[in-house]
Amino acid sequence: MGAEPPSTAVERTAIKKVSVRLVPFVALMFFVNYLDRTAVSFAEPNGMGEDLALTAAQFGFASGIFFLGYIVLEVPSNMALHRFGARRWLARIMVTWGIVSLLFTWVSGSSQLYALRFLLGVAEAGFFPGAILFLSQWVPARHRTKVLGLFYLAQPLTTVFGAPLAGWLIGRQGLFGLEGWRVMFLFISLPAILLGVIAWFYLIDRPADAKWLTPGERDWLTKELAAENAHKTGHEGKHARGDLKAAFGSGRVWGLALVYFGFVYGLYALAFFLPTIINGFQEQYDTSFSVMDKAWITAIPYLPAAVVLFFWTRHATRNGARTWHVAGPAVVGGISVPLALYMGSPTVTVAVITVTACSIFAALPVFWAVPSRFLTGAAAAAGIALINTAGNVAGFAASYVTGWLKDWSGDYYVPLYLVGFFMLLSAVLMIWLAARNRTAEPTPSPEHQPMESLR
């Protein structure tokens, strides 16, 4: 065979180096981030709920108030990241939230729990959209779905590895004179502080400054990304105020925010209440589980979800992302959630919940490749933050409403039907947006056809 064209060889090596050098580290940051924000879901059924005398509604409020804190500083935090650079800002976020997370070790009542959860949201504000924005600034559009898929693997794997880890730490009852759930909070907060310090020295804000790329690779990435950005909202040369106006005035941004709301509603309804639901199996099916049993059962849905996520994003990368890559999983998840209510054993119930988890995690990386297709610069920072803000509203709503409806109705039937409704609504909105954009936009040339161009 003949020699590979120089541009293709440079492209391949540049993307490989970014995927190896940056994506695993940012994914590790996300792993710690998701573990810290969902740690209360492991603590509540394993002593914290009883020690702090929490009702389901109080626990749901404590889980959800985190997102109100996040919302307060979401857009300003992402704009600060755009101004000061990802290296400084993501490092600052991690150290701050690690310190707040550490304080959960000594929480003594529901009021303190509410306050710390709110402050944790304030401390974490901007991390997730900032990480998405950071990675989007390192790879061209046609590689973005694959890279974001690798990054997103951290979220389901957090529960796969984090649930057993949390169970093991909770089992260290009496260490330093602390209850087991307090020991868990103590040890899961320290990695955030450590990684934040490392991130300050390890991350690099843009390809042009990456000494681990060859000059040819740096030039190729810089020129490729600049050419893409020139055709997006918020390209260089526009005033930042105009960029923000374009992002906040975009119907596509608001439509995608509503789509994301439905997915995140389902994601956090499962994340915060699945351990409690599993704990309830003991009475419902007249059985008993140890702390580690419950941890392993909680982890079960997320391992298949990680596998499905990996292959789903690979399929979208190879064949071009289509509307059904996002809408299809939303339909499957929306139907499977209420079906779990009618299963006759813990095994079958968890199997159906696994289908829901697979559906949510399959769609999210493909979804997140969409906003950076038509936004860049300050507009991308604001637009991505706005979409993620809708997710944070859903995180609060899913947490509080699920707990409140559980107390009101006495079971999880009504709350999980509501989860199914919002996921089906996301599917409908995604199909509508794709149909609307087909009639409003010209089709890109084949050689520049982006993965995010949902059709």
Automatic annotation (TrEMBL):
<feature type="transmembrane region" description="Helical">
    <location>
        <begin position="412"/>
        <end position="435"/>
    </location>
</feature>
<protein>
    <submittedName>
        <fullName>MFS transporter</fullName>
    </submittedName>
</protein>
<feature type="transmembrane region" description="Helical">
    <location>
        <begin position="18"/>
        <end position="35"/>
    </location>
</feature>
<feature type="transmembrane region" description="Helical">
    <location>
        <begin position="295"/>
        <end position="312"/>
    </location>
</feature>
<feature type="transmembrane region" description="Helical">
    <location>
        <begin position="147"/>
        <end position="171"/>
    </location>
</feature>
<keyword id="KW-0812">Transmembrane</keyword>
<keyword id="KW-1133">Transmembrane helix</keyword>
<feature type="transmembrane region" description="Helical">
    <location>
        <begin position="377"/>
        <end position="400"/>
    </location>
</feature>
<feature type="transmembrane region" description="Helical">
    <location>
        <begin position="350"/>
        <end position="370"/>
    </location>
</feature>
<dbReference type="Pfam" id="PF07690">
    <property type="entry name" value="MFS_1"/>
</dbReference>
<keyword id="KW-0472">Membrane</keyword>
<feature type="transmembrane region" description="Helical">
    <location>
        <begin position="253"/>
        <end position="275"/>
    </location>
</feature>
<dbReference type="InterPro" id="IPR036259">
    <property type="entry name" value="MFS_trans_sf"/>
</dbReference>
<feature type="transmembrane region" description="Helical">
    <location>
        <begin position="55"/>
        <end position="77"/>
    </location>
</feature>
<feature type="transmembrane region" description="Helical">
    <location>
        <begin position="324"/>
        <end position="344"/>
    </location>
</feature>
<feature type="transmembrane region" description="Helical">
    <location>
        <begin position="183"/>
        <end position="203"/>
    </location>
</feature>
<feature type="transmembrane region" description="Helical">
    <location>
        <begin position="89"/>
        <end position="108"/>
    </location>
</feature>
<dbReference type="InterPro" id="IPR020846">
    <property type="entry name" value="MFS_dom"/>
</dbReference>
<feature type="transmembrane region" description="Helical">
    <location>
        <begin position="114"/>
        <end position="135"/>
    </location>
</feature>
<dbReference type="InterPro" id="IPR011701">
    <property type="entry name" value="MFS"/>
</dbReference>
<keyword id="KW-0813">Transport</keyword>
<feature type="domain" description="Major facilitator superfamily (MFS) profile">
    <location>
        <begin position="22"/>
        <end position="438"/>
    </location>
</feature>
